[in-house]
Design the sequence.
């Protein structure tokens, strides 16, 4: 389990452009740093973030080791129909978490 | 208008102007006021402030049973929104039956060992910081209100002594930077007045939540002094004095700092 904070409007007008912001707790370990024992700490990052609106992809990004811990993502989408936005983070060590938000379009 | 309403009206005017003078007369500055606008917005937005992730985690840990007693914090304290409101404004404090003050982190560990029969969480442990942030968050916006007493005052005096004592290879005291030169620049960064208003803080440089102890150790390394061991009473004494200096300033936990 991972801690996630999402900021998205509950309602939107049809055709309105809405901003969706998501913050997730993740170490984003680069794979370049030595640990206390002198050995390199294995890379552990989120590799990909995607957002779908009723199943259709509206946003996707690749993440790299240069991105800071607890990454914050903000993006815009046009509200065409009421539905569920599914945010999905996948990465190293089998990391895969999802968060759902419902947006009602009037 | 009767004399009575006039009198009441005048009293209200005086009270309002007195309150305004109090706000306007506040010369002390939290580190919040010295940050850029972008960081201030980050701290103010509960879904952009990364410290809130730890507050959320702390809320989960609050309800999770731990230790041989298999009790959670909530089993004794109930809802933190009621029981923990204002608590962080009063720490460090002396626990019942003890002879020395503990900080909030120490209090949480006391609860773990005495009531939950669990192991102490090590310093800077993520779960410990999360619980501390969750507890302190319940007092956000409340003025810092340190307690007093003969034992506390003695430790506080010790803390002030540390604050004013020169130490380290650079031969600097806390006061030289944070009293005499606060607001000026050190390596391009404004020197804050060192009011611990938002701990544990999410420091962007750390990319993590960190305690006041960690911040103090940073300062000690900065003046090339030897940092005390992690369990040293000096940190608590210093925190007692710093909280006294910051008395009345509102708590911001979890604060964001560069």
Sequence:
């Amino acid at each position: 389990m991972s801690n996630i904070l999402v900021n998205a409007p509950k309602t939107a007008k049809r055709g309105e452009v809405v901003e969706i912001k998501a913050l997730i707790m993740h170490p984003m370990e680069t794979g370049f740093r030595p640990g206390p024992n002198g050995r390199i700490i294995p890379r552990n990052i989120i590799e990909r973030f995607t957002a779908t609106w009723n199943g259709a992809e509206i946003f996707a990004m690749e993440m790299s080791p240069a991105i800071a811990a607890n990454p914050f993502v903000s993006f815009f989408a046009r509200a065409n129909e009421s539905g569920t936005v599914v945010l999905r983070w996948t990465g190293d060590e089998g990391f895969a978490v999802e968060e759902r938000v419902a947006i009602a379009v009037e | 208008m009767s004399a009575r309403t006039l009198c009441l009206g005048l009293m209200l005017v005086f009270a309002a102007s007195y309150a305004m003078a109090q706000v306007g007369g506040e010369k002390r500055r939290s580190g919040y006021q010295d940050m850029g606008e972008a960081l201030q917005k980050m701290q103010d937005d509960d879904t952009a402030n990364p410290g809130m992730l730890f507050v959320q985690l702390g809320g989960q840990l609050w309800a999770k049973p731990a230790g041989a007693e298999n009790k959670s914090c909530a089993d004794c304290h109930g809802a933190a929104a009621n029981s923990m409101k204002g608590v962080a404004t009063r720490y460090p404090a002396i626990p019942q039956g003890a002879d020395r003050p503990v900080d909030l982190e120490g209090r949480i560990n006391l609860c773990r060992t005495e009531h939950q029969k669990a192991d102490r969480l090590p310093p800077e442990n993520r779960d410990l910081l999360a619980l501390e942030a969750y507890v302190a968050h319940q007092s956000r916006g409340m003025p810092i209100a340190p307690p007093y007493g003969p034992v506390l005052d003695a430790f506080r005096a010790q803390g002030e002594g540390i604050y004013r004592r020169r130490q380290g290879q650079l031969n600097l005291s806390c006061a030289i930077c944070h009293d005499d030169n606060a607001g000026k620049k050190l390596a391009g960064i404004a020197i804050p007045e060192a009011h611990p208003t938002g701990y544990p803080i999410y420091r962007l440089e750390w990319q993590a939540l960190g305690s006041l102890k960690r911040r103090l150790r940073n300062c000690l390394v900065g003046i090339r002094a030897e940092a005390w061991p992690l369990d040293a009473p000096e940190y608590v004494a210093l925190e007692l004095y710093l909280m006294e200096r910051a008395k009345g300033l509102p708590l911001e936990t979890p604060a964001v700092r560069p």
